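Researcher: Hi, I'm a grad student and pretty new to this. My advisor asked me to get structures for two proteins we've been looking at. I'm not sure of the right format, so I'll just paste the first sequence and hope you can take it from there.
Model: That works fine. Here's the first sequence with its structure tokens right after it:
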Amino acid sequence: MRKSAAEPLSADAIVVEHLVVRRGGRDVLPDLSVTVPAGQVVGLLGPSGGGKSTLMRAIVGVQQVESGEVTVLGLPAGHPDLRRRIGYVTQSPSIYADLSVRHNLTYFAQVLGARADAVDRAIAAVDLESHADASVSILSGGQRSRASLAAALVGDPEVLVLDEPTVGLDPVLRRDLWDLFRRLAHDEGRTLLVSSHVMDEATRCDRLLLLREGEVLSDSTLADLLARTGATDAEEAFLRLVDRAADSGPPDARPSDARPSDATSKGGPA
């Protein structure tokens, strides 16, 4: 798929400032500020229940928030002009099981007013040509995940928000999807925010946001994270940051492990 003609207004495709989301009397995101650089694959990593999905819903404009601001491509999250410019893939397949892959994508293409060749291009991008006319109900879990990604791609979005898209997939398919994510970012200039609780996927991201209990523990490249913590891999680094946070007291009493000065660098790990 080709890169969209529209360009982000700054080096950051997504800007979140002092976001507060409260649910069930609890602050799921107590005061979150992060930025996502344009044209990169940014991994949002952390344990289940840490606020990753809530943050993603706020970015695409479907989460009720208490306070704070979320800006995507220079516009407030949920703005009508972002409808085609941002694609969202939820944890559960977001397509109709009783329709074929092609019929699903044709429907979404018509809703978005996409180009005439958008369906074929999206199917090709996720390597589903051989199952394009199969009913979604008979697809494997991995094929459904790819079909959901194709539905997000059909509008030719500049930003893709992917909520645990590789969960439950076999290693080969996980590798193929991450290769696709990197092509979309590095070859086509799209911005991808990809959540996962599998720490070894950190090696495939340009930048990492480590989130725990609604708090950003680190925003950096993997190389910077390992150097700063003295760890040998992302999981060990995350655990060390958790231990440091526990030893340092409440969040407002300790210094932030914020993004270093290479915020817009694209020199992340391969």
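Researcher: Oh nice, that was easy. Here's the second one.
Model: And its structure:
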Amino acid sequence: MGAARGRSARALVHRRCGGQVLIALALLAAAQPAAAVRVAFDRRGVTAVAASGFADVAARRAVTADDPVRVASISKLVVAIAVMRLVEQRRIDLDADVSVLLGWRLRNPAFPDAPVTLRLLLSHRSSLVDGIDYVLPLEASLREALAEPKVWDAGHAPGTYFRYANVGFPVIASVLERATGERFDRLMQRLVLGPLKLDACYNWAACSEAAAARAVVLYRDGVAVRDDHRGGAPLCPVQPARDGGCDLTMWRAGANGAIFSPQGGLRISARGLATIGRLLLGRGRVDGVRLLTPRSVAELVRPLWTLDGANGDSEGGFYCRYGLAVTFLATNAPGCRDDPFGDGRARIGHAGEAYGLRSGLWIDRARGTGVAYFATDVPDARGHSAFTATEERLAR
């Protein structure tokens, strides 16, 4: 039961009974997500699907495993796949100073001689921090935004400290645009989403109208906060300009990599996420499509940072190992609480959290299995790990 319906249930029970037991039961019902979808898979395909609740509570539209949802930070993992495709094509270099492609000098003012690279940006070791609103308006300049001192960690040089930073991914998107001359959302279509036959997109400009009409609405405390399209397409498929304008012809390669929300704006179904997971299980190949070489996948699934107690911010044990936009679960180290499955098994993938949504894509490479899930209007009740109780239920 979603929060909006839960509040109605609370009022009804109170009016009819006034009983404390029934009120408590109604409050418990209200603490359920508005929608929840779980897709299990192996290398060959989807093995199980479960869906409950509503993609659109007001319209009473039931959610399905094929409805596109803003999966938040799982978007970063899909960006990393595109990066590795361009690395294979020798269009970009993981260890080159990104300033060369950006066309302007990107430096932490406290460490002006330390270059920032794609490898550092993808692994959240660039010394960038989320000190500004990284959801920049359409006409904004990324260069000007990153000139703010509060976007940099003055205490740690690039490469020395892990701090999760969404703002690094607009930088990555700008680098990719400058390297190819292509708009980021179209580049993601060409490199990843199109070859895998996924009707998915970063923000909404590249998705079909049919996909936009099936969007999963995101709720926080029962209030729609994102993608409430009312059965149609969004009025503006990207973050509008400050004056509310939505003229995408003002796009210039690399000027504002935040336009298409590379850090969290991927709209994709849970079934589509399962295809991404199967791609990793297949070492770069899925459903007859070779997207990455096994060597590139091996680079993706290699930890670049492991918490030692002093070399990063684990956010309460949520992050303990990280690679190229890949999270590693079940780290056996003090302070680590990164095992929503509760079985101690090593898994890789990524979690997402934004606008009341929680999501996850996790694969067990040893067993050749995985799970993709999301839930909307998720209560913040914690489970036994650093994840919410809802995420733990969906993981297991």
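Researcher: Is there anything I should tell my advisor about the second?
Model: You could mention this: Confidence is low (pLDDT under 50) at residues 1-30.
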